[in-house]
C-alpha cells in the first residue's frame, strides 16, 4: 500500500517484544540449554590448505572407547551441504581437504572437558597440493582448485555501448580498490544441539538465521523425509549473515554425532574456532575505468569486480550478483559494462555479511567518484549532484526508478546536519598550520536493494501463517528469525496496526519447522518489506474469515474482534489465515542477461564522515558520523535507528580496525585480543536522520534497511581521510601501518588520469 | 574452554609466609597466580602448561600502597584500580596512574596486578616504562629474605627476569621528592581501549638555561624488554633542543631500538612512531622553560 | 592418559544475596560455576579471554570478567549477576532504560553491559560522556554501535545531567 496515512502503532517505539528476557538474563541461547543425557561434540579440522588425506590416526593416551567418532563414512545420505551449487561443499572432508580448518573428524563425549585433548590427539597425514590464497593467484589459472577454471561465478552486465564513449570523454579516470575479509563477530559463537530418535527423527536446536536452510540441507545429508527433520531456532546472539549457511554444517555435524551416540549432542564453538573456521565477508578487488565529460557527467563506466570466494561456492554467486548490481552506484550513466568474477581459493569459504557484496563495490564506486571530482576539478558534492539518479532514470540493469527519490535533497540535508561546508573550510585553514592532527570530511551516497535479487523472491515463494485463539490473541507463524534486528517487534506492530489491537495481543511463534511455514531466509533486508507485507495480508485475511462468517463488520473495535474470535473458534475450531508471496505484476527480470528490475525497491542514503588523522601515529579516527537515509517507512524509530547505528559501527570497523591476518590460508589473529572491533571508546558520535517515501510493496510503505548502513561508512571515511591528508588510500582495512607507509614518503595518487582516447579498457 | 580444569591443582595458603615456604620447599613446582588475567587466558586457550598453582590473591602483605618520607611503596598485589585510585600516586607519580588506566578495561584493571604484570615480563606492558623513568626499585622476597635492586636490572631478556623460582615480587618502590617538571607518556594501541600496546614512550626531564639538564626515556615494544633508551638520552644531555639536536635524537632512537613485526604491528611503524613520540616529548621539554 | 584427578574444593560464597556452595575443581572458572553449578545462564561466554565482557559479574561489588576468575578465589565473596539486578520482580533502573531505549538488540552482551553500567554508576553517579565510554569499553557490543547503550546509561543516572553533549537525535521525515 502506498500511503503515509496516520498509524497508531507503526512508527512508534514499541518495546522490544523479547526484550524483557534479554534484560533479565532469562533469554535462553543455545549454550544455555541442557538436554537430559546430553553429550558434547567437537571437530577435528585440517591443518593444511589443500591436499589428499592419506591417513587418520587416533593417538595414544586417549581412551577412544569412551568417544563416539564420526567420519564421512558415517554419513547416511549425501556428503554435501547443498546451497546454490550442488555437490560442492562436503559435510566432512573425505579424500581431500580444500582449506585450512576444514572439518574432517567429529568426536563426542559425555564430559566436555575431555574433548580438546582428544581433538589434539587425532593425527591426519596429508599429501599436500599447491594452494591458492588470493584473487590474483586464482585468476592466473595456473593451478586449478575449483571447477574447470577457478571461476565460481561470472556475470556480464551491459547497458548501452561502453566502448563508444572513450573518444568523446574529456577525462578518463581509472582506479583500483580493495577490501579485505571481515569477520561478522557476533558476540554469541555458533552452536547447535541435535537429538535423534527413530520416532521423531532429527531435532535440531541452534543459533541460526534460516531454519529452513538447515532443514533442507539435513534432508540430503541424512536421507530423511521432510517430516523427520525438525529445526528450531534458539534465541540468537547476533548473526549479520554469519549464521545464514554455516549452521547447516554444524547441524549436520551434531546430527551425525547424535545419530551415532544415541544421545543428544551439543556442539558450541569457542571464539578461536569460530573465528578461524567459519565464514567471513568476501575480500574484493574492484577496477573502475570511467569516461566523464568536462562537467563531470558520467559518460561510460567499465567496471571489473573480483571477489575471493574461498574453497567452496556456498553463497558466492549471490554475493557476486549483488556486488555487480550495486557497482555503478546511485548514478545515471547510459553506458555501463560490469564484468564480475567470484574466484575460488583455498581459504575457508567466504559467506554472507551485512551488505553481501555491496559494501565491496560501493566502496569502489564512492572512492572513485571522489577521484573523478578531483580530475574534473569539482567538489565531491558536486560530482554526485550532477550524476544522481532521479525518478524515471534507469539503473545499470535497466531498472526504471518508478518511485520518487530525492538524492540531491538528501545530500543537502546530510551536508547541513554535518555542518559540512563550514567544517571543511575551517579544516582547510587549520590543516595548513597544524602538523599534529588533520581533520577532513567525506561523503558517500548509495542505495541498497531490498529483497532477493531478480526472480529470487518468486523462487522463495514465501508463506506466512497467522492464528487466533478464543481470546483473540494472535500468533504469527513465520520462519523469519529474530537476532537483534527487531523482527518480532516489527511483525507484532504490523498485526496490531492491521487489526486495531495492541502489541501485547500478538505473539511470534518460535521458528520451528514443525510449526511455522517457510517465509524464506532472514537475509537480504527482506523481512520487513516482504515478510512484513505478507503478515499484514494474513492479518487482513484473518479479519476476512471472520467477516465471511458474519462475525465481524467492516470497522471493528478490539473487543469486537476478540468476541468474533471466541465465537468463531467455538463454532468452527481453529482460526487461521495464510498469505503467500505474489510477485508484483510490474517487476520483470531477465536472469540470462541480468537485466531488468533487480529489486522491488531500493533504500537510498547519503552519509558524511568527519575524521581526525593523527600525523604522529598515522592513525585515523572517526569523530562524528552523519547518516541520512530514505527507507520507505520507519516502522519503529528506536529499532530502526539502532540498525543504522550498529551498521555504521561495523562499517567503521571495516574501514579502520578489522583486519584478518592470513597465514597459509588460515586466520592467524583468531582471538578477540587480536581481531580488533570498535569498543564504546572508539565509535564516533552517530546521528541518524530518516526520510520516508512510502513504497508500494512493503507494509505501510516500508522498505528494507538492515544492510544499508554497512554500505556507506568505509568510503565516506576514506574520502574524509583524503580530504584531511590529500592522500588517496584505496584499500581497507586502512591501518596506521598502511598510512605510515604512504605518508612517510611523498604521497602518490593511485588514480590515473589520461585525457582522450589513449587506451582501451584495462 | 580448551583445558580440563580437573587436571589443575590450585591452593590458597592465605599468607605470604605460607606461600614462600611452599615455593622454597618445592622450587619451580608451583606457579603463583594473582588476579589471573594472564594465566586464566592461557587456561582457556589450552596453553597453561603448569599444573600446580598457588594463589596470591588477597594476601594483605602484598596489596597495600604505603608512603614513607623517601619512598612510595606499591605492593605487588596492588591492582591497576588500586593504583588509579591512590591519591599519592595521582599527585606524585601521575604517569603511573595514567598507564594503569590504559591497561585493558575496568574489569581487567580490577583484577590485574602490578606484580603480575612485571613478572609476566611482556615487552609491551604499559607500566614498566613508567617505572623505568621514575627510577623505581623492585623488592623481591623469598623464605630466605628480601633483596632489592633497580627495576632496570630486573629484566634480562625476552620474558626472562632475575626472579628465582622460590621468589615473589614483594613491592615496587618509587623515590619521592624527585619530581621533574616535564612528564610525558603516550601509548599507541590498536584502538582507544582494550588494546595491547604497539609502542609506548615515557619521558621525564628538566631543562636548565636552555639545555637539557635531566632526561629519562623508556619505551615498550621497542626491545625484548621494557627499556631505557640510554643512547638517545646521551645525545640529549647537556644540549639545547635545536631542531638539529632533535633530529639527532630521532636518529639515535631509530638506531637504538630493535622492534619486531608481529600480529599487531610492524617494526618500521613502531620505530618511526616512537621517534615521533620522542619529538613530541622533546617539544614539550623545549617549551617547558619559560 | 588424563592426569590423576585433583581434589575438589568446596567453595562457599554469596550469589545474588543467597548463600551458595559448589564442590568443584579449584581452577574451574567462576563463569562455569555460575552457569553450570547454579544454572545462572544469564552470565555469557563470548570469548573466554577477558576481552568481550559478556561474562562480567560484580565480585564484592567490583566488576570482573568471570571467565578469568578461578572458583577458589571467589571463596567468601559476594557475586552479583544479571539475575540479581531485579528485586521482587521489579526491574532495576538500568534494566528498564536498556529495555526502553534500545540498549539491547540481540541481548547477548546485555547482562555484562548492564553490570558494567551498574559498576560505573555506583562508583561515579554522574559520569560524563567520556567516563561512560570508558566504563563500558571492556564490554563489546556488535549490534548497537553503543549509541543507545550510552543513552540507557545516561538515563539511568538518577538526576538528569545538563551536559552539552547529548545523545544523537534522529528525526523522522515530516
Query: How many DSSP H or I helices of chain A?
Result: 19
Number of domains of chain A: 3
What is the structural class of chain C?
alpha+beta
Summarize the amount of helix of chain A as a percent range: 25-40%
Portion in helices of chain C = 25-40%
Secondary-structure-based class of chain A equals alpha+beta
According to CATH, the homologous superfamily of the largest domain in chain A is: Aldehyde oxidase/xanthine dehydrogenase, molybdopterin binding domain
Characterize the overall form of chain C: globular
| Biggest sheet features of chain C | 5 strands, mixed
Rg measurement of chain A, Å: 26 Å
> What's the CATH topology label of the largest domain in chain A?
Aldehyde Oxidoreductase, domain 4
Your description of this structure?
The complex is a heterotrimer of chains A (762), B (290) and C (174). With 762 residues, chain A is an alpha+beta fold. Chain A has three domains: 128 residues, Aldehyde Oxidoreductase, domain 4 (2-Layer Sandwich); 191 residues, Aldehyde Oxidoreductase, domain 4; 333 residues, Aldehyde Oxidoreductase, domain 4 (2-Layer Sandwich), CATH 3.30.365. In chain A, 28% of the residues lie in helices and 24% in strands. Chain A contains 19 helices and 29 strands. In chain A, strand 10, helix 4 and strand 11 form a beta-alpha-beta unit. In chain A, helix 13 packs parallel to helix 14. The two termini of chain A are 46 Å apart. The C terminus of chain A is likely disordered. Chain B folds into three domains: 51 residues, Uridine Diphospho-n-acetylenolpyruvylglucosamine Reductase, domain 2; 116 residues, 2-Layer Sandwich (Uridine Diphospho-n-acetylenolpyruvylglucosamine Reductase, domain 3), CATH 3.30.465.10; 107 residues, Enolase-like, domain 1 (2-Layer Sandwich). In chain B, the strands form four sheets. Chain B has a five-stranded antiparallel sheet. Chain B has a four-stranded antiparallel sheet with strand order 11-12-13-14, sandwiched between helices. Chain B has a three-stranded parallel sheet with strand order 1-3-2, with no helix packed on it. In chain B, strand 6 and strand 7 form a beta hairpin. The longest helix of chain B is centred in the C-terminal third of the chain and has 22 residues. Chain B is globular, with a radius of gyration of 20 Å. Chain C is α+β, with helices and mostly antiparallel strands. Chain C has two domains: 76 residues, Ubiquitin-like (UB roll) (Roll), CATH 3.10.20; 64 residues, DNA polymerase, domain 1, CATH 1.10.150.120. Helices cover 28% and strands 16% of the residues of chain C. Chain C is built from five helices and six strands; from the N terminus they run E-E-H-E-E-E-H-H-H-H-E. A five-stranded mixed sheet of chain C has the order 2-1-5-3-4, with helices on both faces. In chain C, helix 2 runs antiparallel to helix 5 and helix 3 crosses helix 4. The longest helix of chain C has 14 residues. The C terminus of chain C is likely disordered. At the B-C interface, strand 1, helix 2 and helix 7 of B face strand 4 and helix 3 of C.
Amino acid at each position: 500500500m502506498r500511503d503515509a496515512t496516520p498509524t497508531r502503532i507503526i512508527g512508534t517505539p514499541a518495546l522490544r517484544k523479547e526484550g524483557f528476557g534479554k534484560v533479565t538474563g532469562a533469554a535462553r541461547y543455545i549454550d544455555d540449554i541442557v538436554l537430559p543425557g546430553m553429550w558434547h561434540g567437537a571437530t577435528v579440522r585440517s591443518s593444511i590448505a589443500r591436499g589428499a588425506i592419506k591417513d587418520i590416526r587416533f593417538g595414544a593416551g586417549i581412551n577412544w572407547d569412551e568417544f563416539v567418532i564420526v567420519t564421512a563414512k558415517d554419513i547416511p545420505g549425501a556428503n554435501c551441504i547443498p546451497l546454490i551449487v550442488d555437490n560442492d561443499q562436503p559435510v566432512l572432508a573425505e579424500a581431500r581437504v580444500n582449506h585450512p580448518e576444514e572439518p574432517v573428524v567429529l568426536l563426542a563425549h559425555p564430559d566436555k572437558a575431555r574433548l580438546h585433548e582428544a581433538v589434539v590427539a587425532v593425527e591426519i597425514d596429508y599429501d599436500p597440493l599447491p594452494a591458492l590464497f588470493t584473487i590474483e593467484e586464482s585468476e592466473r589459472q595456473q593451478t586449478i582448485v575449483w571447477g574447470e577454471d577457478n571461476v565460481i561465478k561470472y556475470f556480464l552486465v551491459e547497458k548501452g555501448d561502453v566502448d563508444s564513449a572513450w573518444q568523446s570523454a574529456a577525462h578518463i579516470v581509472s582506479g583500483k580498490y580493495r577490501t579485505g575479509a571481515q569477520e561478522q563477530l557476533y558476540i554469541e559463537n555458533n552452536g547447535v544441539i541435535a537429538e535423534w530418535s527413530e520416532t521423531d527423527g532429527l531435532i535440531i536446536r541452534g543459533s541460526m538465521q534460516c531454519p529452513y536452510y538447515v532443514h533442507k540441507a539435513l534432508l540430503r545429508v541424512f536421507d530423511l523425509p521432510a517430516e523427520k527433520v525438525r529445526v528450531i531456532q534458539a534465541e540468537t546472539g547476533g548473526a549479520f549473515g554469519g549464521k545464514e549457511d554455516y549452521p547447516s554444517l554444524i547441524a549436520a555435524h551434531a546430527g551425525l554425532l547424535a545419530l551415532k551416540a544415541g544421545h543428544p549432542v551439543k556442539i558450541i564453538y569457542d571464539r578461536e574456532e569460530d573465528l578461524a573456521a567459519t565464514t567471513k565477508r568476501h575480500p574484493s578487488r574492484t577496477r573502475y575505468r570511467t569516461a566523464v565529460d568536462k562537467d563531470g557527467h558520467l559518460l561510460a563506466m567499465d567496471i571489473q569486480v573480483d571477489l575471493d570466494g574461498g574453497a567452496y561456492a556456498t553463497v558466492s554467486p549471490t554475493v557476486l550478483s549483488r556486488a555487480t548490481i550495486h557497482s555503478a552506484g546511485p548514478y545515471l550513466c547510459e553506458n555501463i559494462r560490469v564484468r564480475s568474477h567470484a574466484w575460488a581459493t583455498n581459504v575457508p569459504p567466504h559467506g554472507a555479511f551485512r551488505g553481501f557484496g555491496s559494501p565491496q563495490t560501493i566502496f569502489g564506486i564512492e572512492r572513485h567518484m571522489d577521484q573523478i571530482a578531483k580530475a574534473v576539478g569539482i567538489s565531491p558534492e558536486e560530482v554526485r549532484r550532477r550524476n544522481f539518479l532521479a525518478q524515471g532514470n534507469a539503473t545499470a540493469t535497466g531498472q526504471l526508478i518508478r518511485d520518487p527519490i530525492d538524492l540531491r535533497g538528501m545530500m543537502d540535508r546530510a551536508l547541513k546536519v554535518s555542518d559540512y561546508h563550514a567544517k571543511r573550510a575551517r579544516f582547510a585553514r587549520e590543516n595548513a598550520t597544524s602538523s599534529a592532527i588533520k581533520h577532513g570530511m567525506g561523503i558517500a551516497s548509495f542505495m541498497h536493494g531490498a529483497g532477493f535479487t531478480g526472480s529470487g523472491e518468486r523462487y522463495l515463494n514465501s508463506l506466512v501463517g497467522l492464528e487466533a485463539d478464543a481470546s483473540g490473541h494472535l500468533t504469527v507463524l513465520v520462519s523469519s528469525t529474530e537476532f537483534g534486528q527487531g523482527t518480532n517487534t516489527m511483525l507484532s506492530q504490523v498485526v496490531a496496526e492491521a487489526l486495531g489491537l495492541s502489541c501485547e495481543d500478538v505473539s511470534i511463534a518460535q521458528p520451528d519447522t514443525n510449526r511455522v511455514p517457510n517465509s524464506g531466509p532472514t537475509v537480504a533486508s527482506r523481512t520487513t518489506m516482504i515478510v512484513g507485507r505478507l503478515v499484514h495480508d494474513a492479518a487482513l485475511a484473518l479479519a476476512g474469515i471472520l467477516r465471511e462468517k458474519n462475525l465481524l463488520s467492516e470497522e471493528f473495535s478490539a473487543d469486537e474482534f476478540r468476541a468474533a474470535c471466541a465465537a468463531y473458534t467455538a463454532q468452527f475450531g481453529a482460526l487461521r489465515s495464510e498469505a503467500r508471496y505474489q510477485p508484483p505484476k510490474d517487476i520483470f527480470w531477465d536472469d540470462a542477461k541480468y537485466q531488468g528490475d533487480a529489486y522491488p525497491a531500493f533504500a537510498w542514503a547519503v552519509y558524511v564522515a568527519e575524521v581526525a588523522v593523527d600525523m604522529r601515529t598515522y592513525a585515523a579516527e572517526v569523530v562524528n558520523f552523519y547518516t541520512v537515509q530514505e527507507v520507505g517507512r520507519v516502522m519503529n524509530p528506536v529499532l530502526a535507528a539502532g540498525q543504522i547505528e550498529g551498521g555504521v559501527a561495523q562499517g567503521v570497523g571495516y574501514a579502520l580496525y578489522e583486519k584478518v591476518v592470513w597465514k597459509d590460508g588460515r586466520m592467524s589473529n583468531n582471538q578477540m585480543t587480536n581481531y580488533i572491533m570498535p569498543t564504546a571508546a572508539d565509535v564516533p558520535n552517530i546521528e541518524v536522520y530518516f526520510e520516508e517515501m512510502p513504497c508500494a510493496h512493503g507494509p505501510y510503505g516500508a522498505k528494507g534497511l538492515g544492510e544499508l548502513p554497512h554500505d556507506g561508512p568505509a568510503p565516506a571515511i576514506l574520502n574524509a581521510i583524503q580530504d584531511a591528508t590529500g592522500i588517496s588510500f584505496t584499500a581497507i582495512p586502512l591501518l596506521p601501518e598502511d598510512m605510515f607507509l604512504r605518508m612517510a614518503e611523498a604521497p602518490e595518487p593511485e588514480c590515473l588520469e589520461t585525457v582522450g582516447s589513449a587506451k582501451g579498457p584495462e | 574452554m580448551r583445558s580440563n580444569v580437573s587436571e589443575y591443582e590450585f591452593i590458597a595458603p592465605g599468607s605470604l609466609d605460607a606461600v614462600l615456604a611452599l615455593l622454597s620447599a618445592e622450587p619451580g613446582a608451583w606457579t603463583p597466580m594473582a588476579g589471573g588475567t594472564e594465566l586464566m587466558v592461557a587456561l582457556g586457550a589450552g596453553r597453561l602448561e603448569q599444573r600446580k598453582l598457588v594463589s596470591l590473591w588477597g594476601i594483605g602483605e602484598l596489596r597495600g600502597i604505603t608512603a614513607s618520607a623517601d619512598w612510595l611503596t606499591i605492593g605487588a598485589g596492588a591492582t591497576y584500580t588500586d593504583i588509579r585510585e591512590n591519591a599519592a600516586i595521582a599527585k606524585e607519580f601521575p604517569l603511573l596512574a595514567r598507564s594503569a588506566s590504559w591497561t585493558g578495561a575496568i574489569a581487567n584493571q580490577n583484577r590485574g596486578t602490578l606484580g603480575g604484570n612485571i613478572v609476566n615480563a611482556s615487552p609491551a606492558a604499559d607500566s614498566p616504562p613508567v617505572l623505568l623513568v621514575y627510577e623505581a626499585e623492585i623488592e623481591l622476597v623469598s623464605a630466605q629474605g628480601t633483596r632489592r635492586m633497580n627495576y632496570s636490572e630486573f629484566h634480562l631478556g625476552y620474558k626472562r627476569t632475575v626472579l628465582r623460582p622460590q621468589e615473589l615480587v614483594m613491592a615496587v618502590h618509587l623515590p619521592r621528592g624527585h619530581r621533574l617538571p616535564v612528564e610525558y607518556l603516550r601509548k599507541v594501541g590498536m584502538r582507544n581501549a582494550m588494546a595491547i600496546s604497539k609502542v609506548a614512550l615515557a619521558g621525564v626531564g628538566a631543562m636548565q638555561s636552555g639545555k637539557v639538564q635531566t632526561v629519562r626515556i623508556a619505551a615498550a615494544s621497542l626491545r625484548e624488554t621494557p627499556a631505557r633508551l640510554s643512547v638517545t638520552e646521551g645525545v640529549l644531555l647537556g644540549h639545547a633542543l635545536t631542531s638539529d639536536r632533535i633530529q639527532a635524537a630521532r636518529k639515535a632512537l631509530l638506531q637504538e631500538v630493535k622492534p619486531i613485526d608481529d600480529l599487531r604491528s610492524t617494526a618500521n611503524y613502531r620505530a618511526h612512531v616512537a621517534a615521533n613520540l620522542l619529538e613530541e616529548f622533546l617539544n614539550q621539554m623545549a617549551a617547558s622553560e619559560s | 592418559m588424563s592426569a590423576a584427578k585433583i581434589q575438589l574444593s568446596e567453595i562457599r560464597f554469596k550469589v545474588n544475596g543467597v548463600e551458595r556452595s559448589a564442590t568443584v575443581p579449584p581452577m574451574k572458572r567462576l563463569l562455569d560455576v555460575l552457569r553450570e553449578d547454579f544454572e545462572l545462564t544469564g552470565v555469557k561466554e563470548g570469548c573466554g579471554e577477558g576481552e568481550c565482557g559478556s561474562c562480567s559479574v560484580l565480585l564484592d561489588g567490583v566488576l570482573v570478567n568471570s571467565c578469568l576468575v578461578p572458583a577458589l578465589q571467589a571463596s567468601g565473596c559476594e557475586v552479583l549477576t544479571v539475575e540479581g539486578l531485579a528485586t521482587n520482580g521489579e526491574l532495576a533502573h538500568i534494566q528498564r532504560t536498556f529495555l526502553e531505549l534500545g540498549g539491547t538488540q540481540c541481548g547477548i552482551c546485555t547482562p555484562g553491559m548492564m553490570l558494567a553500567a551498574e559498576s560505573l554508576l555506583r562508583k561515579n553517579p554522574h559520569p560524563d560522556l567520556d567516563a561512560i565510554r570508558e566504563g563500558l569499553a571492556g564490554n563489546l557490543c556488535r549490534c548497537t554501535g553503543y549509541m543507545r547503550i550510552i543513552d540507557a546509561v545516561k538515563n539511568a543516572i538518577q538526576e538528569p545531567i545538563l551536559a552539552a553533549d547529548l545523545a544523537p537525535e534522529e528525526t523522522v521525515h515530516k
